[in-house]
Every structure is written in structure tokens, then in C-alpha cells.
Amino acid sequence: MSLTKLFTLVFLRKEDEILLGFKKRGFGMNKWNGFGGKVEPNETIVEAAVRELSEESTMSVKPSDLINIAHLEFTFHDEPVLMDVRVFATNTFEGTPKETEEMTPKWFNIKELPFSNMWPDDELWFPYMLEGKKFVGKFHYKGFDTILHHTIEEQESMEAFYANRK
Ligand SMILES: Nc1[nH]c(=O)nc2c1ncn2[C@H]1C[C@H](O)[C@@H](COP(=O)(O)OP(=O)(O)OP(=O)(O)O)O1
After folding, report:
1. Residues contacting residue 42 through CB under 8 Å, at least 6 positions apart
2. What is the pTM of this model?
3. Domains along the chain?
4. Ligand 1: which atom is nearest the Cα of residue 35?
5. Is 108 in contact with 15 (CB distance < 8 Å)?
6. Which stretches make up the Nudix hydrolase domain (predicted)?
7. Per residue in 14-69, pLDDT tens?
């Protein structure tokens, strides 16, 4: 039995660029990542996604503009924790990204992504996201650098995936 923890992860897109943030503290420190964090008990997943994006990058999005593009699960060798990460993307947003306590944001060209300084799983699933696919990715880690095994499955729709899963 694993303890499941729910997280959000948001990517803003602008033509051939994507906004990433350099994490200055905590989980994933010193890595480029999307913006997100834990879903609090008093909020919906989409509300958490909007809040974390704003807290970490100062960018604003409307909940209805966030498209759920993926579901990621991370498990860890010898640790009974399952990270359930809901991934959202949009090209409709307001603001200019600013550095916050947690993140330094930067627009990257999608052909020049800093994979060597990102979570190792990102290089495996970013191509799906960049091709506009919906997908479910499951990654089993040993420590934080080694993926012992993984699966990535394209989906017709994320709504159908969540409706059908047990
Ligand atoms: N292997 C991985 N690959 C990836 O691309 N993103 C990952 C990942 N593992 C976790 N994430 C994302 C999910 C989430 O957006 C973030 C982790 O959330 P945090 O720990 O920063 O949560 P909080 O911001 O709520 O934390 P606090 O610092 O306690 O406020 O990292």
C-alpha cells in the first residue's frame, strides 16, 4: 500500500517557447521544471494549479483555460509513496514571469530544452506534450536520478482515463 499525494504541474506555451522555472528550494531543487505543488484539502485540483502557478511565477491563468494534458505517477524504490501529478498546459495567460521565493522563470525554445538539468523522466514524456498528445506516464525511481522502469501510454482523452480507472 502506498500513500498517494496529489500534485499539479503547469506549462505555459507561447509559439515555440515554453515557460520553465528553476527551483530554488525544496523538492526538485536546482532543476528546471513546470510550476506546481501539492493540492490543499480546501481546493480543487485546477484551483491548486492556478494558485501554484501564480505563487511560483506570478503568472495568471483562468481555471477554464487550463487543459489537462497528462497524468504522471512517480513511485520510489523502498518508499511507500505515490506522487500523483496532474499536468496542465495552456497558451492563454496574463502577466510577465517574475522571480519568486521558490522559482526563477525563463522562456525556453522547445528545441533547446535543458534536459540535463531537469527530472530524468521529463526527457521521456516532453516529446508527447510538445506533439500535443494526451498521455499517462508511470515512473519508478531508485533515489532521484535513476528510473528503474517506466511506461507512457497515449490517451484519447484524460476525462475518459479518469472516468475508467479504478
Ligand atoms: N519527476 C518529476 N518530474 C517532473 O517533471 N515534475 C515533477 C517530478 N516530481 C515532482 N514534480 C513536480 C510536481 C510538483 O509540481 C512539484 C513538487 O511540488 P512541491 O514539492 O514544490 O510542492 P509545494 O510547492 O506544495 O511544496 P512546498 O515547498 O511544501 O510548498 O514538482
Report:
1. none
2. 0.96
3. 3-164 (3.90.79.10)
4. 15
5. no
6. 2-131
7. 999 999 999 999 999 999 999 999 999 999 999 999 999 999 999 999 999 999 99
